[in-house]
Amino acid sequence: MNAFDVLSGVLVLGGSALALTAAIGVVRFPDTLSRMHSASKPQTLGLLLVLLGAALRLRGHPDVGMIILTGLFTLITAPVVAQRVGQLAYREQRDRDDLLAADEMRDDR
Fold first, then answer.
1. Cα-based distances in Å from 56 to 15, 36, 59, 64
2. Taking the CB of residue 14, how many other CB atoms lie within 10 A of it?
3. 51-84 in b/e burial notation, b at 16+ Cβ within 10 A?
4. The pTM is what?
5. Membrane-crossing residues (predicted)?
6. In a domain, 102, yes or no
7. Which of 31, 41, 98, 109 has its CA 20 to 30 A from that of 3?
8. What total of structural domains would you count in the chain?
9. Residue 85 CA from chain centroid, whole number
10. Is the pLDDT confidence value at 95 over 60?
11. What contacts 72, CB < 8 A, 6 or more positions away?
12. Is residue 108 part of a domain?
């Protein structure tokens, strides 16, 4: 067992722990905006850590290219999806106004 295997294991376990906290947050948080935050940020970082750990373990294997593409696709799509879900939740009034510090989307007409 070398240093790359140990680092790979630490990254996979750390990423799995972040993904677990994201799943717990989705279940426990009260409103859509809080759940969206929990589902996007730690889950994305957790997946990237798991993919990095897998890439370290598989170094030199042809599948590392697919792992890199998966990570890039996640980085591109996760923020866009979270932003769109947040806009939809706001427009459908499924959020709690008392949790907003500033309402930048409100129409002042």
1. 14, 30, 5, 9
2. 16
3. bbbbbbbeeeeeebeebeeebeebeeebeeebee
4. 0.77
5. 6-27, 64-82
6. no
7. 41
8. 1
9. 14
10. no
11. none
12. no
Tell me the residue range of the domain where 27 lies: 1-97
Q: Tell me the two tokens of residue 43.
A: 């889950």
DSSP letters, the chain, are --HHHHHHHHHHHHHHHHHHHHHHHHHH-SSHHHHHHHHHHHHHHHHHHHHHHHHHHTTTSTTHHHHHHHHHHHHHHHHHHHHHHHHHHHHTT-S-GGG-S--TT----
pLDDT digits (tens, 9 = 90+) for 2-30: 888 899 999 999 999 999 998 998 899 88
Rounded to 5°, the CA angle 99-79-106 comes to 40
User: For a pLDDT cut of 90, what percent of the chain falls above it?
Assistant: 38
